[in-house]
Specification:
The complex is a heterodimer. By secondary structure, chain A is an all-alpha fold. Chain A has a domain at 89-293: MetI-like (MetI-like fold). Chain A has helices at residues 32-61, 73-78, 102-133, 135-148, 157-164, 168-193, 196-204, 209-231, 233-246, 252-261, 265-293, 295-300. Chain A starts with 31 loop residues before the first helix and ends with a helix. By secondary structure, chain B is of the alpha/beta class. Chain B has a domain at 4-70 and 180-267: P-loop containing nucleotide triphosphate hydrolases (Rossmann fold), CATH 3.40.50. Chain B is built from nine helices and ten strands. Chain B starts with a strand and ends in a 6-residue tail after the last helix. Classes of the chains: A mainly alpha, B alpha/beta. The complex binds adenosine-5'-diphosphate and magnesium ion. Residues 13-14, 21, 23, 41, 43-49, 212 of chain B line the site of adenosine-5'-diphosphate. Adenosine-5'-diphosphate binds next to β2 and α1 of chain B.
Chain lengths: 302, 268
């Protein structure tokens, strides 16, 4: 048998040259040109933001804007100092006035978004796989899902508050429902597109139907699903903020709303600034996950 | 032990639809244990279909297929199929790919790595165990597929134009490599190709299929010692014979150009 075949081909003519392998992006090389590009990039960011804030400050100094409505950046960013409990991440602090706990709000909002996305992702994956595995189940449920998918996440807010009251659960439900139908459709669609050669490979090696599902279908579709998830990230983010503005009374959306109600423009703008920064960082984090965890998809297709 | 028998096998695609395509008709042959059989025919004649049926991925619409006397009803790890397209799973490292069949069997990680490493060494890829498929050349990927098939202990290896996508030099190396692996292993190989040189170089016996619907035109034993001298008169004689067989088939359905393609000149 082959196992006892003494021939080892490690060193002979068969070691043909590897074709410039694209390297798994584990760590970036200490390539100075990469650092240079990054620095230039950061430079433009600082310049752009600095210019924006600078023009705003100058217009304030010249008295062109009403600082009650448009407070200058140094004032509303300074408002962070007035967040006396800034570093106490207790969740669910009541809106007791201007001294909102900014970090608490960030944690509350992020928790809702991430929980909703995670639950939606898992539920859609399970549901989509079931619909593909049990064809009758799929045929029975697909038309309804197709009709429910285009309903924007924000449109579910009234129902969510009616059903779950004004708490975490309502906000999580909005995110969940906003992603669930779209991802379920995406799952079924991706399953149908999985390369038949991978499925046949597993079958030839003795895989059962459920092993094909677990070892081939799911790993093959996860990158696609993640792309859909990321595309809907801002939708989910906005839905949570909207929910926090209209009913759920904690979180970043609530900060902005309280600022308006109390005519505290500094608080309002602080809330908006945090929303911008955290939303951006959230997207960056997702992009990193996509690049590192699912690196093989993008690299394999270069 | 790996013996295959085809008894009057036929395949009609879309049997329940209006657009029936008869792909294979009345295919009968047998392959002895340890034999290296090459099937050659113009493209579209049903070579891949035949291998899929031997692998158990498809079932014939008429006739019967037997493996060691038992009817083939589905895939079986004793018969492994190597595809023309890249078929390593891109999300698994090379060693996990080679051990994939063992993973499906539920073998412990330690044990399956031990076995997979052994086969990776045999195909000259031991130092690439932790690499991913996209980091390997086409030839290396196909070698890994061979290791994956061997790792499960298949005694019949079905190969569907496994080297067709490789450049000529690599293909030539792979042919030698395959013979190295096969000789003395006792494995049965059924190898599909549309390259005449490849068939003459590799086969104990060549089965020639006609244009669609594929039927067996002839079954020609090649009794030349290995390694075969590709510039010998004997080699040339076989070559000419297959060209004549295929010329009529190719012109029937396809352009003369295709015949030229089937005759890529081997590097000598
Ligand atoms: N899954 C399939 N469904 C329907 N028709 C098929 C299928 N696979 C192959 N065929 C048809 O069978 C014929 C032979 O295909 P194939 O076996 O791939 O030929 P070859 O491998 O010799 O080039 C082709 O005409 C093709 O259209
Ligand atoms: Mg084919």
């Amino acid at each position: 048998m082959v196992e006892s075949n003494p021939k080892t081909l490690e060193t002979n003519r068969l070691t043909e040259p590897t074709p410039n392998p694209p390297v798994r992006p584990k760590r970036r090389s200490s390539n100075p040109s990469w650092i240079k590009t990054a620095l230039i990039n950061i430079g433009w960011w600082i310049l752009s933001i600095g210019l924006f804030l600078g023009i705003w400050e100058v217009m304030t100094l010249l008295g062109w804007v009403n600082t009650l409505i448009l407070p200058p950046p140094h004032q509303f960013l300074g408002e962070i100092a007035n967040q006396d409990q800034f570093l106490m991440p207790q969740i669910g602090v009541e809106r007791t006035g201007a001294n909102f706990v900014a970090l608490t709000a960030i944690v509350a909002t992020l928790k809702r978004v991430l929980t909703g996305l995670l639950l939606g992702f898992i539920a859609a994956l399970i549901f989509g796989c079931l619909a593909a595995y049990f064809k009758i189940f799929g045929k029975l449920t697909l038309p309804v899902i197709t009709l429910l998918a285009p309903i924007a996440p924000v449109a579910w807010i009234p129902l969510a508050i009616l059903a779950f009251g004004i708490g975490d659960r309502a906000a999580i439900f909005v995110v969940f429902i906003g992603i669930f139908f779209i991802l379920t459709l995406g799952t079924i669609n991706s399953i149908n597109k999985v390369d038949q050669v991978y499925i046949n490979t597993a079958r030839v090696l003795g895989a059962t139907r459920s092993q094909v599902m677990r070892h081939i279908i799911i790993p093959a579709i996860i990158p696609d699903l993640f792309v859909i998830l990321r595309m809907n990230l801002f939708g989910a983010w906005m839905a949570v903020l909207a929910a926090e503005m209209v009913g759920v009374n904690t979180g970043l959306g609530a900060i902005v709303m309280v600022g308006r109600q109390m005519f505290n423009a500094k608080l309002m703008f602080l809330g908006m600034a945090i929303i911008g920064v955290v939303g951006y960082l959230l997207d960056v984090a997702f992009a990193q996950i996509q690049k590192r965890v699912l690196w093989w998809k993008s690299n394999a297709q270069i | 032990m790996g013996e295959l028998v085809c008894q009057q096998v036929g395949k009609v695609w879309g049997i329940d639809t209006a657009e029936q395509v008869s792909t294979l008709e009345d295919i009968s042959f047998s392959v002895q244990s340890g034999e290296f059989v090459v099937i050659i025919g113009p493209s579209g004649c049903g070579k891949s279909t035949l291998l899929s049926m031997l692998a158990g991925l498809e079932s014939p619409t008429s006739g019967m297929l037997l493996h060691n006397g038992q009817p083939i009803t589905g895939p079986n790890p004793d018969r492994s199929l190597i595809f023309q397209q890249p078929s390593l799973l891109p999300w698994l490292s090379l060693i996990d790919n080679v051990a994939f069949g063992l993973t499906l069997k539920g073998m412990s990680k330690k044990e399956r790595y031990r076995r997979a490493e052994n086969f990776l060494s045999q195909v000259g890829l031991r130092s690439f165990a932790k690499k991913y498929p996209h980091q390997l050349s086409g030839g290396m990927q196909q070698r890994a597929c061979i290791a994956r098939a061997l790792c499960l202990g298949a005694d019949i290896i079905l190969m569907d134009e496994p080297f067709a996508a490789l450049d000529v030099q690599t293909r030539y190396n792979m042919q030698k490599f395959l013979l190295d692996i096969w000789e003395g292993s006792g494995k049965t190989v059924v190898f599909v190709t549309h390259h005449i040189d490849e068939a003459v170089y590799l086969a104990d016996r060549v089965i020639i299929l006609s244009a669609r619907p594929g039927r067996i035109l002839d079954s020609v034993p090649i009794n030349m010692p290995r390694p075969r001298d590709v510039i010998s008169p004997e080699f040339e004689q076989h070559r000419t014979m297959f060209v004549e067989y295929l010329r009529s088939e190719v012109t029937k359905a396809f352009a003369e150009q295709e015949l030229a393609e089937m005759l890529d000149t081997r590097i000598k």
